[in-house]
Amino acid sequence: MRWTTDKIRQSFLDFFAERGHQVVPSASLVPKGDATLLFVNAGMVPFKDYFLGVRTAPNSRVVDCQKCLRISGKHNDLEAVGRDSYHHTFFEMLGNWSFGDYYKAEAIAFHWELVTKVWEIPAERLWATVYEDDDEAENAWIELKVLPKERILRCGAKDNFWEMGETGPCGPCSEIHIDREPAGNHPTDRPGQACDQSGHPGHKCAVNVEGCSRFIELGNLVFIQYNRDAAGKLTPLPMKHVDTGTGLERVAAVLQSLEAGRYLGNYDIDLFQKIILSIEDVTEKVLGERTEYGFQFGNADYNSEVDIAFRAIADHARAIAFLACEGLVAGKNDREYVLRRLIRRAVRRAHHPLNIDKPFLATVCTAVIGAMGDAYPELILQSERICQVVTEEEERFSETLERGLSRLYGEENRLKSVGEVTLSAEFAFEMYDTYGFPVDLTQDVCRESGIQVDVAGFERLMEEQRERGRAARKDDVAAPEIMLAAGVKSRFVGEHNYEADSEILAAEPGADGRMTVIAAETPFYPEGGGQVGDRGVIETSSGALLEVTDSRKHDGSILHIGRILRGDPADFSKGAHVKLRLDRERRDASMLNHSATHILHYALRDILNKDVHQAGSMVAPERLRFDFSHNGPVSAADLATIEEEINARIRENAEVYTQEMAYDDALKAGALAFFGDKYGDVVRVVRMGDFSTELCGGTHVQRTGDVGIFKLDSEGGVAAGVRRIEAFTGQGALDAIRRREKLLDDIGGQLGARDGAALERLEKLLAREKELEKKLRTLEQKLVAGATAGGAGAEQVREANGVKIVTRRVEGVEAKSLREMADLLRQKYGSAVVAIGSDLGDNKAALLVAVTADLVKRIKAGDIVKEIAPIIGGTGGGRPDFAQAGGRDASKLDDALARIAALV
User: Fold this and answer.
1) Which of 138, 313, 683, 813 is the most buried (most CB within 10 A)?
2) Band of the pLDDT at 297, cuts 50, 70, 90?
3) What CA–CA distance (Å, rounded) separates 187 from 178?
4) Coil, strand or helix at 883
């Protein structure tokens, strides 16, 4: 396969990088500083401020591959997932961006070159659309002389005019479409199936026809040239932008279809094949025959419940893995509830129709990590956490799934008996509140029986429950910053101060002596810019004492959150005079690490290249973490040079000074600003000597020599095009060096050698281990071969209707080994029907049937399995040459194997 998904993604980034675009990593799925969205649902979301004019883009040309999730709000594809060949919850959006740089003609030419020259899609299959009033875009296509005018279509605002909202930046767009099934040249072995709506009454395939998957959009080029006001008036913008979006999965399906010479849907691409195979490994069901280019579907009905389940689980597993990787856990609120819904929908699909009755999602998510970990290394780093999150939620839901389904099926039967077709809102709410069924899961189950759900009524009941919860929390302080912040402002005075006298502006008591306080002036630095919030104490003039365990920003206020150690809440009332004192040692340690991140950033750009930019940071007293844009690992030699350069700059003892200035002036002065960060009109600039100038609001040392020493701890990948360095400074660096020295001493003690001799001893042990592993694998292969070579308990061979039937019963052999045994038996007998039954323990059984190639036209393995699986209390299916089943009655394995002769 030439065009794998990974190659397509990289080819897009490389194409635009070669044309002056800065490659930026995908932003987090959780939008930063945007309360209007639960998740990033389009490629433009991380760049919205540049279109709105809130910030100036550091680079006028940008290219990225953005992680997106459409599962809530206006853009919600959840209900369609699995039921067609192209809808997804999680997807990757390729995008190139021009912020006031090139415009329509260049954008159109770029994409045409990419599609036809790099991806080599035949021009005769392509169409273009432009907005009905956009003469400029149409002329750009005509002057390019690549398409006949009849394949350049003018379309209305519904399809070819983009708006961010009811007001704000907007503009026309031009799209490139491909005809996946041109007349007289079907690229499919299932004619008509390039369109999911083929054959539906009244449907005619054409560009921009709703539901048509024969003509699909390959790229959308949005030209942001107007601002729409509240009255609907369009005013030309002073600066025009280009915003493009190209769905990676869709392009992969197109390119791999062209290679295969037949129609492939999104779920047939190489990336999804790996995920779907992992689902097959945990169920007796088989989706279809695997080929290099997707699945030849084994079921007669492409839209059978089994096929839908495979696709839905594969889709949901991607979304689940990436959400868990973002640090989310399954829960009841907002983003956490989205993760819970996805996990529970996948578990229900696995339970029926795939008959999976044990935790399985960790296995499928591991396949997601294997398929996408190279592009998104954060998946690999968080793999253990991902598996833990999904397994815990799976097990939690499994406890109520059976009872919930039984209750729901009973209500469905009652409704049918009285001729009703709508499940009440009250019952749907009971399924949610008692059994943990999200309403969309209840809808899924009811849809199979032709029953509708009163969703509007359910939402009303949910809102009533939320209102009761809000009333019950009225006197609670679970979110003190919201209750304290209205109209209250405080001033930070702690850049180089560790204590201050002030007056309390507001205070809010909580349970168990907890307290939140706002003071007029404070030395406490609130969490922000990657630096953790300060800790310390606040003491009143009356002697009451509050231990501050966290400091946070909120709407111009600095919140001091902690616990009363002495006195009572009344001592901290508004107007009380207080002394605020920091934990100085903790602040100093954070300050060293924060200043070190600036020196590190300088060193990375100086030694690697100037394209390196900060992509995130965490500055704590214990250590620093710095994420930066860079393709590929940093070599050991470069890491050593970086560490040496940083320590040289520390020894230089350069002065560190700060200055406030206008944002645009700061950029002109050479200050570094970063994608994803929010900046106001006036910014704080931190300079270190003549080598580092950055926008930063955090606390810093007064001279670089104060950092003392910098020691690298690790370097690795966390996302596509993003690397992470972790390091220590000051006393933390000395402690890290001593820990490493002790570890080396302990290892040497275990090996019975020191220093260079310890390494030599370890190399010998590793070589010995490798030799033993090789011998062990040889023994395993002999055991499998021996199990098929005759002797005690060997297979039984009989003949029926001129066909050899080879059967064998084994104990405790899992699916992979059963397949190996079946392959060996087919080789051994040349022409035969091979059947193996395995007693897996706990009365569980597995059956496998394999048919040699010369017999598959007469005898189908899948047909045999469907007949004998019920004997062991199970179901199964598969391909003509290979099928398998699982069951719950191992005592009937012999009966099932004996039945095969009669079937043949």
Assistant:
1) 313
2) very low
3) 13
4) strand
Which pTM value belongs to this model? Answer: 0.57
Convert the pLDDT of each residue in 63-79 to its tens digit: 999 999 998 655 566 77
- Phi, psi angle pair for 613, to nearest 5°: -140, 150
Q: How is residue 100 annotated by DSSP?
A: S
Q: Residue type for 184, please?
A: G
Residue 746: CB atoms within 10 A of its CB come to: 10
pLDDT digits (tens, 9 = 90+) for 353-403: 898 988 999 999 999 999 999 999 999 988 988 998 899 899 889 878 888
- From 105-114, 310-319, 832-841, the region with the lowest mean pLDDT: 832-841
Q: How far apart are CA 343 and CA 322, in angstroms?
A: 12
Q: Distance (Å, rounded) from C-alpha 584 to C-alpha 494?
A: 11
- 572-614 pLDDT per residue, tens: 988 999 999 999 999 999 999 999 999 999 999 999 988 788 8
Report whether 726 contacts 625 (CB < 8 A). yes
Q: How crowded is the C-beta side of 616, counted as CA atoms within 13 Å?
A: 17
Strands 288-291 and 875-878, bridge-based pairing: unpaired
Q: Please, what is the Cα angle at 262 between 261 and 265, to 5 degrees?
A: 130
CB-CB contact of 685 with 595 (8 Å): no
Q: What is the pLDDT of residue 302?
A: 55
The DSSP-derived string for 47-96 is GHHHHHTSS--S-SEEEEEEEEE-EETTEE-GGGTTTSSS--SEEEEEEE
- Summarize the confidence of residues 687-706 as an average pLDDT: 93
Give yes or no for a contact between 645 and 603, defined as CB atoms under 8 angstroms apart.
Answer: yes
Which of 728, 498, 747 shows the shortest CA–CA distance to 625? Answer: 728
HEC per residue, 439-469 = HHHHHHHHHCCCCEECHHHHHHHHHHHHHHH
Distance CA 753, CA 449 (A): 71
Burial group, residue 261, by CB count within 10 angstroms (0-12, 13-18, 19+) = exposed
Strands (E) located in 611-735? 614-619, 624-629, 656-662, 682-688, 692-695, 710-719, 722-729
Cα-based torsion angle of the residue sequence 222, 225, 227, 231 in order, rounded to the nearest 10 degrees: -90
